[in-house]
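Most newcomers find our protein records easier to grasp once they have seen one. A learned vocabulary of local backbone shapes supplies the integers on the structure line. Here is such a record, shown just as it appears in the course material:
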Amino acid sequence: MTTETLIWVAVVVVVVVALAAVAFLVLRHQRRGRLRERFGPEYDRTLAEQEDRGAGEQELLAREERVAELDIRPLDPERRRTYAVRWTEVQERFVNAPGFAVTEADQLVTEVMAERGYPIEDFDQRVSDLSVGHGAALDHYRQAHEISGREAAKRASTEELRQAMVHYRFLFQELLGESPSDGRASRRDPAANRDDHDEGTSRRDSGGW
């Protein structure tokens, strides 16, 4: 093999390696953007809890894989209406029994999660599973859960209990207003599969919280 041929071989190898490196960087950038979009605030939170960015993103990818194996399904319109009415009743009970209402709100949110197909046995696992399609709601859920825990020890003020209701409502409304996306995770779908009457009922049932 001549010197000129060796030089051309070396050039080709360098070009191939460079193209592979560029392709890797592009794919990683695209994956990062997709994860940021899908997980929202949970993306930064998860990365902060891990040793490095790579470990954090692998954790999020693992969550996607787990949720892909779950049978996450939408509520039918009748069940949405039923749950909306039940939420209004819980809000009305807050006036006279705020602590009891917060406990009911927690149970109602958990019930909706279970009916949609989310495992509910462990709180941390619930948060992990919800993060795939409900990243924006997780801080609300965590705060509501923390206040609910303090209420169990009778250490939560009425204002804190009111805030817990607001936080629970955020996730509750998302769970009622979403439908599965390509069978793997849930994405917001506030208008599809609902007529104008259903949307009006949902707005009235929110009770202004």
About this structure: The two ends are 79 Å apart (CA to CA). Residues 178-208 have pLDDT under 50 and may be disordered. The longest strand covers residues 178-181. Residues 3-39 form the longest helix (37 residues).
